[in-house]
Write a structure and sequence with these properties.
The structure holds two protein chains of two kinds.
Chain A lengths: L8 E2 L5 E2 L2 E12 L2 E12 L3 E5 L6 H8 L7 E6 L2 E2 L5 H6 L2 E3 L12 H7 L9 H6 L3 H19 L15 H14 L4 E5 L7 H18 L2 E5 L3 H7 L2 E6 L2 E6 L1 H6 L1 H8 L5
Helix pairs in contact in A: 3-6
Chain B lengths: L12 H4 L6 H21 L2 H27 L7 H18 L5 H20 L8 H20 L12 E2 L4 E2 L2 E2 L7 H24 L1 H11 L1 H6 L4 H28 L1 E2 L1 H4 L2 H14 L4 H25 L4 H22 L3 H15 L5
Chain lengths: ~270, ~350
């Protein structure tokens, strides 16, 4: 963490929030005639939990897809760790240290939980095809080293008992957790969570919230998340961006956003007279 | 009571990720290797070698190869016959151009050449998937067969258009040509089978295999976690074609001896190998062997019972054989769509609890 940053500060619960790690500058994204994102700028600071909220169709997921390299915005710049990011394929973005989860779970159903989480470390596994074909020696050593790291995450997320279960057989809540584990296995600088609590019951939501806070606290991971449950968002996040119809209508701490008239209008509707 | 994992504790990740984690399996595997190496060569005769063992071993390599591509990386290919032809013709050209080099290296090199050709024909997979890719590989099949038929350089301008293998020996023992001993050709193929299975297992248990399976299961998610689809798919095509090429080279040089490309490596060969991995089990090494054994043994078995046992006319038996094999394929696919490997797995699960299932 960059403690030297002039504008770093300490939160009420004692976490240090550093300088800007990712900055979106005037992003505009169009699909044909439809403008999904219109001239949005915001930043994400090191160590914080940043929420993106907004009604359905506001462009939140599109925003996440821009960050993870799926969509290429027509206008605007993405700055990551002090450098302007050139246009990149998603797998190149991944190797820069940005990991994400999906709104609809995107796990590899044919593989075990352990293998799924191990895929999170693929960008770090460097042995070539030939030494892997021989296995004994470098490939095995590398595999066991990464297995050790993955086991730490398995312990952390309390999924030891399902390690060898094929992912296809797991219930929804656990799948979400495995997906989080896979993203964490990549040791990301920035973790993007697309509706981590969608479709969960209260207990599962509480578990998930705890994991998100723990991840942020223990690993110091910067997190950007999209979530619809306002209670969760207001509790978890340090700062919130509010989007509506592709535009940014609010940005600030949960309390500031809660009092913002434009936000209230977007969520509650406004009388047309 | 024998087949237990209780009390068999693993104390290191190395132990935990070994190929046969259950002791009984491990012993069975060693016994199998010992029998294949020590017992079979002494009891083998020409009939067993030519009708059963050689085709089984060679098809097992081809099935392993195709399973890498289709079973692990999820790319359907109907070009197996064509790629086997590449291996066969590469080994022929190499053997006739460099007669002093050992045939073992020629066969490995043929695999390498096939890998390059496979990568070339794998390029469309970056844009298309599923059925459309199958059609694209079908083009490879027909193009390659046409090429080897039409360009005389490939068959050294021989009048018949066929290629026939020169005599070659390993450690002074002939493995190709008309005067080979059954045990020698058998052992020669067995070495390749063993190496192939070992390498495929190693590749699929590590990061390369995970890349392939990630692409197979969900390519978008694979890309987001950092898998480059280009290298993952092309490496699958390369590795797969390598083994298919080795199988083609062995099929030509050790098994058939003389080959006419359309006959030996036509589209039916592509389907045969595809059936092997579907029946055996996609994404399973055991499945590749089981499928190869099924497709090689079933016709032999049927022929022996119908013609030898019941005394039917050969042509009648041959027709009936087609129908029965087809019916059995359907039967297996309905009973267990994931192939013999899945049946085997279910059986092992049951065996672990036997005889007290509750």
């Amino acid at each position: 963490m960059n403690d030297m940053s002039p504008d770093s500060y300490v939160t009420a619960d004692g976490r240090t929030i550093g300088g800007v790690v990712m900055e979106m500058k005037n992003i505009t994204l169009r699909f044909g005639g439809v403008v999904a994102i219109k001239d949005i700028s915001f930043d994400i600071r090191e160590g914080e939990i940043r929420a993106i909220i907004g009604p359905n169709g506001a462009g939140k997921s599109s925003m996440l897809n821009v960050i993870s390299g799926f969509y290429v915005p027509q206008e605007g710049e993405v700055w990551f760790r002090g450098k302007r990011r050139p246009q990149m394929k998603p797998y190149q973005v991944a190797s820069q240290g940005i990991a994400r989860t999906f709104q609809n779970i995107a796990l590899f159903d044919g593989m075990s939980v352990l293998d799924n989480i191990m895929t999170g470390r693929l960008t770090m596994m460097k042995t070539g095809l030939l030494s892997q074909a021989m296995w004994f020696g470098r490939a095995e050593k590398e595999e066991n080293h990464h297995r050790e790291q993955v086991e730490k995450i398995i312990d952390f997320l309390e999924i030891q008992n399902i390690r060898k279960t094929p992912v296809g057989r797991l219930p929804y809540g656990l799948k979400k957790r495995v997906e989080l584990a896979r993203a964490l296995a990549a040791e990301p600088k920035l973790l993007l969570l697309d509706e981590p609590m969608a479709g969960m019951n209260v207990e599962e939501k509480e578990d998930m919230s705890r994991f998100i806070l723990d991840v942020n606290d223990e690993f110091g991971t910067t997190i950007a998340l999209i979530e619809h449950d306002m209670g969760v968002v207001m509790d978890l996040s340090d700062r919130v961006v509010v989007m509506d119809y592709g535009k940014k209508i609010g940005d600030g701490t949960p309390d500031e956003v809660r009092g913002n008239q434009a936000v209230i209008d977007a969520y509650l509707g406004v009388a047309h007279d | 009571m024998l087949y237990r994992e209780a009390g068999d504790f693993k104390t290191s990740y190395r132990d935990d990720s070994q190929t046969f984690p259950i002791k009984f399996d491990r012993i069975a595997y060693y016994v199998l290797i010992a029998v294949a190496l020590i017992v079979v060569p002494f009891v083998i005769n020409d009939y067993w070698a030519n009708a059963v063992l050689l085709p089984f071993l060679i098809y097992a390599i081809a099935a392993l190869g195709l399973n890498v591509l289709t079973g692990y990386a999820g790319q359907v290919s109907l070009g197996t016959g064509g790629f086997m032809a590449v291996g066969a013709y590469a080994s022929y050209k190499l053997m006739t151009s460099f007669p002093d080099v050992n045939i073992f290296f020629h066969i490995i090199l043929s695999g390498g050449i096939t890998a390059l050709v496979g990568m070339l024909f794998g390029l469309p997979s970056l844009r298309i998937k599923g059925f459309y890719l199958a059609v694209a590989t079908l083009a490879a099949q027909f193009f390659l067969v046409w090429l080897f038929n039409r360009v005389p350089w490939f068959y050294n301008y021989s009048a018949s258009g066929q290629i026939s293998v020169p005599e070659r020996a390993v450690f002074g023992i002939k493995v190709t040509g008309p005067q080979t001993e059954a045990w020698a050709t058998y052992l020669f193929c067995l070495v390749f089978v063993f190496l192939s299975a070992w390498i495929v297992r190693n590749l699929t248990r590590g990061s390369t295999g995970r890349k392939w399976m990630a692409i197979r299961d969900m390519d978008i998610a694979a890309e987001i976690i950092g898998v480059n689809p280009l290298t993952a798919k092309l490496s699958a095509f390369a590795v797969s074609s390598f083994f298919v090429g080795v199988a083609g080279a062995l099929f030509f040089s050790v098994y058939l001896g003389a080959v006419e490309v359309g006959e030996a490596f036509g589209i039916q060969k592509s389907f045969l190998v595809l059936f092997m991995i579907i029946i055996g089990g996609l994404g399973s090494i055991f499945g590749s062997f089981a499928g190869a054994a099924f497709m090689v043994l079933m016709p032999v078995l049927l022929k022996n019972t119908l013609v030898g046992g019941l005394g039917w006319a050969t042509d009648l038996a041959a027709h009936l054989e087609f129908m029965i094999v087809g019916g059995l394929i359907l039967f297996f696919l309905i009973v267990e769509p994931h192939g013999l490997a899945a049946l085997w797995k279910v059986m092992k699960e049951k065996l672990r609890l036997w005889p007290f299932p509750h």
